[in-house]
């Protein structure tokens, strides 16, 4: 009986693992719909692209990808320019101004002031729940410190686990949780995209999707 139970659970675990697939997205070959940005460079050797900076938020929506829940893994690169480097990934994109996103402020990663470091990782749900609204009304609930404190101008790797009611962000170097939040929008869209904040450019590479 015990052997049968063990075999049953072993098969169940194997089936679950087989049901999860990880796909590497070749960003340079993807069909991107770019909003309020232009692609400034493409490097096929490193599977990376960069987008320029402009006033206002920007998106590069990956048209051929359907994603509702699962895990996103990506390398990101910002700058060490205070107030001008916001880079991340958007999901549940309903239109160019209605979406959820996880983004980072690299200029805060190694800030001397603790309060600035605690503003390194951010969840938003536009248009209503932008960073200012969330910080004013829910201080400390939707943003957090990046514990490892990467160099602000270097590439850093993160994992974003999107569930129906929550989002959890991990540092892939240490596998430590950075931020866990309750989603402020219902999943109604399967569109995802690269995201940049006001006056920010960004580098993106090695996007992987596990579903």
Mind explaining what this structure looks like?
34% of the residues are buried. The N terminus is likely disordered. Helices cover 14% and strands 41% of the residues. It has one domain: Exo-inulinase, domain 1 (Jelly Rolls), CATH 2.60.120. The protein is mostly beta strands. It is globular and about 40 Å long. Strands 1, 3, 4, 6, 11, 12, 13 and 15 form an eight-stranded antiparallel sheet that branches.
Itemize the secondary structure elements and their pairings:
Layout: H1 2-19, E1 22-25, E2 32-35, E3 39-43, E4 48-51, E5 58-62, E6 70-77, E7 87-95, E8 98-104, H2 114-117, E9 121-126, H3 131-137, E10 143-144, E11 156-162, E12 166-171, E13 176-182, E14 193-196, E15 202-210
Antiparallel strand pairs: 1-15, 2-5, 3-4, 4-15, 5-14, 6-11, 6-15, 7-8, 7-14, 8-9, 9-10, 11-12, 12-13
